[in-house]
Each structure stands twice: as structure tokens, then as C-alpha cells.
């Protein structure tokens, strides 16, 4: 296939161009504050089908619908008071809410579920695109199904560039991991379906049920109701991954293998440019670790190491999301 994709700087003219492509039922790569998305008209079945095709994603795995504002979202899903309050507080931002859908959202988007995942993103380029459009945008992460999520326009171009025409370049994604997903269909019992940049504490829903124990297998099923999207094996580079405990050293590392620590090692021999040792942050800051996670994994996946040994993050705040993605990336393929 030919590589037709253009990486477009976020000028007004290029944002207009992407808006026109989307009106013509095309899908394009878009920057968000979490990871890059593969966007299409959420209200048009041709566009939505293209998203699944380009990503190689099974139709049983539903999509997040992105809006410019809470008011726009209210036209397509049923908000309860608790959802409205959370949205008012955290949107635009890295929070996705699961709420009962209205008829305007097709079953294709929700994989037949009566509820939809909705979010108002914060990235200024994505917002500027949404503002121009007459429709919301369905957008999964812009990676081939099962692979590491993209945090640079170049990642999208490298993996999907022969299947799409354009990716808007909004720079490196701030958070680097996908939004926190909260099921708020029952306002009295919110449930975190996917940990993300906003922790349960930050959201003020500490007593919620957390679905982040990745050791409990959630199998890909033919029934979207059972387990939408929370596949145990996901985010996986081609290179196998072994995880080790936070604050410990990697064991039995062969010469052909690489080690990723969460913080730069004090040992200057390890921290030299030529060693096979890498790190996700200078001083252990969790936001920096998350920001660098997927990019470093993709870089080392190209470097042909035979294995990546990766240190788990401190399991708090966005570190919970980092560990969730790491567990899935390290899980054996079925
Ligand atoms: O940060 C993000 O959320 C990024 C950016 C592009 O917005 N998007 C993203 O989309 O991560 P995706 O498709 O890679 O992950 C969405 C997750 C999937 O696990 C999917 O199964 C789940 O959301 N999901 C979507 N609709 C759902 C629904 N109605 N009920 C339960 N889970 C749903
Ligand atoms: Mg994804």
C-alpha cells in the first residue's frame, strides 16, 4: 500500500483541511492531551466503520465519542446529576464517562451496548477541530489494534500512515496514557473501568469499584456487554516485556536485552549513553513517567532488543494507570 499520510502542522488551514476530510467521511489522526486518536464522524456509519477497519479493531470493542462541550454531549447521552457535576469539574480533560446513550449514537459506535463512552478533550488543536464541526468525533487511540498507543504524530504515521491521509501534529501528548473511564450509569456506584491521568482520589470517588486488577483475566468476548475493551493483552510491542518491582533492580539481563527504570540510575556507568539502560524520568515524577512511557517503549521496540525489562511505577496517582498499561503490555498473547 502507498504511504499517503501527511503529518500536518496545526495551522488554521490544516485544521480546516482535516474538518473537510472528516465531512467527506475520511478518518484522520488527531492530537489529544492523553494519546493520539483516530477520528471519524461519530454520527456517520461509513466513517465509524472506517475507524474499525483502519485500526483492525473488532466491532465488539466500542468507541469513545468526543464533544466540544458538555452541552453538546448532553444532546447524545443521558446525564445524571453526579455525571454532570464531574463533567463540569473535569471537562475539558482526561475523563471519559459511560452513560446511557440516546438514539443519535448508533449501535456500531457502542458495539450494541445501550450506553456510550463520552469525553470533552482539552487539547487546543483537537478542540479547534471539534469547534468547526457539526458532529462529534468517535476516536479510539490511533494505534493498530493491540499495539502501543501513539503519543506523537510520527507514531501514528509510522503505524497507520499507509491507511490514512493525514495526522494533525499537536506535539507530544501531555499525559501519555489514555483517559480515566468511569461508569456512571448508576450515580450511587461509580466504577473505574480504566485507570488514567485522573485518579479515584482526584475525582472524589474513592469508594468506587476499581476494575484495574489486570491479573484477573477479562477475555475478549463475542459479547460486548461482558467486557468491552479491557483485554488483558494489549499495548504490546513486538519485543517481549518482563516487569520487575518498583524500587528494585532488573535481574538476569542479557546483553541483547534492555532495561527501563522509572528514574535515572545514580550509577553513572548504567546512566551512560552507550549502556542498554534507559529511564522514564529524571527524578521519579509520576506525570513524567507516564508522559514518556509509550514513546520509549516504541523507540526501543524499533531498536531490536530481544527483551525489555521494565520497572513498575509507584502504584499511586497516574502510576496506577502506568502499571495497568505495563501489565497488559507484558501479558502473553492468547
Ligand atoms: O484518552 C483516551 O481515552 C483516548 C483518546 C483518543 O481520547 N481514546 C481511547 O480510546 O483510549 P480506545 O478506543 O483506545 O479505548 C476506549 C476504551 C475501550 O477499552 C472501550 O472498550 C471502552 O473505552 N469503551 C468504549 N465505549 C464503552 C462503553 N459504552 N462501555 C464500556 N466501555 C466502553
Ligand atoms: Mg486504545
TrEMBL record:
Question: What Pfam families does its record include?
Answer: Sua5_C, Sua5_yciO_yrdC
Q: Does the keyword Cytoplasm apply?
A: yes
Query: Which reaction does this chain catalyze?
Result: L-threonine + hydrogencarbonate + ATP = L-threonylcarbamoyladenylate + diphosphate + H2O
Domain (YrdC-like) ranges: 12-198
Report the domain of life of the source organism. Bacteria
| A single MF term (Gene Ontology) | L-threonylcarbamoyladenylate synthase
Q: Does the keyword ATP-binding apply?
A: yes
Indicate where this protein is primarily found.
Answer: cytoplasm
Q: Which PANTHER family match?
A: SUA5 (PTHR17490), THREONYLCARBAMOYL-AMP SYNTHASE (PTHR17490:SF16)
Query: What function does this protein fulfil?
Result: Required for the formation of a threonylcarbamoyl group on adenosine at position 37 (t(6)A37) in tRNAs that read codons beginning with adenine.
What name does the UniProt record give this protein?
Threonylcarbamoyl-AMP synthase
The lineage is: Bacteria, Pseudomonadati, Verrucomicrobiota, Opitutia, Puniceicoccales
